[in-house]
Specification:
Bound molecules: protoporphyrin IX containing FE
Helix content: 55-70%
Strand content: under 5%
Strand order of the largest sheet: 1-2
CATH architecture: Up-down Bundle
Largest sheet: 2 strands, antiparallel
Order of helices and strands: EHHHHHHHE
Number of domains: 1
Shape: elongated
CATH superfamily: Transmembrane di-heme cytochromes, Chain C
């Protein structure tokens, strides 16, 4: 094993700030939606708007960072080992078989992570930002006294924004579980706090064995 610097300072700052903002946007958003009661509706709207603007600022910096460092390449989805990785999470992990893919500082995401994170970056987050901004700047008829304007137009925006919120909430729950499935229960978490992680040393093999064909070590 070798200690490697996997997550740089900005990346860790971005990860934790994004996590905090998404949790906060989720709590205030679901209060606006009427699912929970915490701050009160008016405060929830005010907090949600403020957190949304902060999230937009963070996104601008994160896009800049991803392109200037070339780290965006880590997220390009691949078919290679995608099936093996999915089979690992469904079967292999419960039989103690080794991870089908190896983490290195140059390839820190497994094929399933690449696919899911790319989906979040190019689909779910943009949907939340666009629908959120449309929601924010929607010309409410009452506000501008354009009473003939059809308020029904807001419905599709609200539905899209709410579907995105449910997707993010589901991702969050799955993410919490998957964080514990690294080399040890806390190794992934520690890496995102300190930047360093103990990784297997030596050259990376090109192709992993399909998980279901690996020997069962624990039996
Ligand atoms: C830049 C990103 C975002 C913007 C600009 C934004 C903006 C807004 C706005 C303006 C509203 C309506 C508030 C009102 O009724 O006056 C809203 C509602 C809501 N937001 Fe966001 N939001 C963003 C991100 C998020 C995220 C990340 C989540 C969830 C994790 C979320 C969850 C919700 C929910 C559940 C509602 C209630 C939807 C409804 O019942 O119609 N939002 N958002």
């Amino acid at each position: 094993m070798k200690k490697e610097y996997v997550y740089r300072a900005f990346e860790r700052f971005w990860h934790w700030t994004q996590a905090a903002l998404i949790i906060f946007l989720g709590v205030t958003g679901f209060e606006i939606h009427g699912s929970i009661r915490f701050f009160g509706f008016d405060q929830a709207v005010r907090y949600h708007n403020f957190a949304a603007i902060s999230f937009l600022v963070l996104i601008v910096f994160a896009i800049f960072w991803h392109f200037t460092t070339g780290e965006w390449r880590q997220y390009v989805p691949t078919w290679e080992n995608l099936r093996a990785q999915a089979e690992y999470y469904v079967f292999g992990i419960f039989r103690n078989v080794p991870h089908p893919t190896r983490k290195t500082s140059l390839s820190k995401l497994n094929p399933l992570q690449k696919l899911v994170y790319a989906g979040l970056k190019v689909l779910v987050i943009p949907i939340m930002v666009v629908s959120g901004l449309l929601y924010m700047f929607y010309r409410y008829p009452q506000r501008y006294e354009v009473l003939s304007l059809n308020v029904g137009g807001l419905e599709i925006i609200a539905v899209l924004h709410t579907i995105g919120a449910f997707l993010l909430a589901s991702f969050f729950i799955a993410h919490l579980y998957l964080v514990t499935t690294g080399r040890t229960v806390t190794s992934n978490l520690k890496a995102m706090v300190t930047g360093y992680e103990e990784l297997e040393a030596g050259p990376v093999e090109k192709k992993a064995q399909p998980v279901l064909h690996e020997p069962v070590l624990s039996e």
